[in-house]
């Protein structure tokens, strides 16, 4: 489309802000509406693989992100009881040479802050909750719970797994409980210095559980995520306090380093892990979805943020030079759905792989991990073929 579009992005998380930045850089008039009052520490650390950092570099924000991030040296998997190394993949300069962009660990709030600061002033409106969307000739209408509304050329629903935009388009549909509960928290680096976690992403895998830890916030904090199989806990709030005694009991008998990390996590938060099956459509008319709103996934491939960032780039690219908005949005969804569905399946599969009981299947998994990047044998496909934005904004990546 040759002219500027008026766009509202619903959701001020990583995907929504990246979409707003990509669309703004392409010359569109973009606003972001976020129901929360502002950025918080909810979510703590995330991993940004090269498929995401390459897009962030093209958007001109990677340098600012690197100033608040950690560049890990390796990604490793270890056995639950004796700490034996199952797989170690060099990151740092090695992965950047291979895939053309770095692998980073970053605090979610730091990343949100960088993305928001890169937008034109006044473009992020907090404390605004979407009530629904409706089609209109040549665009869409967006309503808010305070009774106000807006007519725009394009609405992007980037409002998470319980997206109000998705529900408005396709009706209510419950998310799927995975049977997993996650404990999460941040530990000051000095409290774990004697454990020697180093600048690595470490995943400890064992029967019915796994634990992930890595540094964020420039190395000042250790991000810790402990996932257990617990069918009775179905609360999704990221602000519920977990019981440290229950967490320690779940990892009793694990390697002393694992137990020491858990001991340092004295105030863990706890939430149930949900996902959804792939959607057959991502939108209608001048309304589309992005990120967790259309392809939520468990965090077991460290790609939730990465796939949302790819979505943002693809959306901006498909709209560049488009003759009509609805047609561009159909192309965007057709481009992205196969890839995101495959990453969703990868994430689900890892939830099973990481929790295998000791036995033949576990031995086969360990052998496979030793011969490839432990998170997936498809890492070249995952990291090497991102959606990128050309200088003119046109999407130009392959997703084979």
Could you give a short description of this structure?
The chain has 12 helices and 18 strands. With 400 residues, it is of the alpha/beta class. It has 2 domains: 6-35 and 127-174 and 276-353, FAD/NAD(P)-binding domain (3-Layer(bba) Sandwich), CATH 3.50.50; 70-106 and 176-275 and 355-385, D-Amino Acid Oxidase, Chain A, domain 2.
Q: How would you sum up this structure, described in words?
A:
The model is unreliable at 391-400 (pLDDT under 50). It is built from twelve helices and 18 strands. It has helices spanning 14-25, 50-58, 62-68, 92-99, 108-118, 164-170, 244-250, 256-264, 304-319, 325-353, 360-371, 379-384, and strands spanning 6-10, 29-34, 45-48, 74-79, 85-90, 104-107, 124-126, 130-136, 139-144, 149-152, 154-157, 176-188, 200-206, 209-216, 221-229, 269-275, 283-284, 287-289. With 400 residues, it is an alpha/beta fold. Strands 5-4-13-14-15-12-16 form a seven-stranded mixed β-sheet.
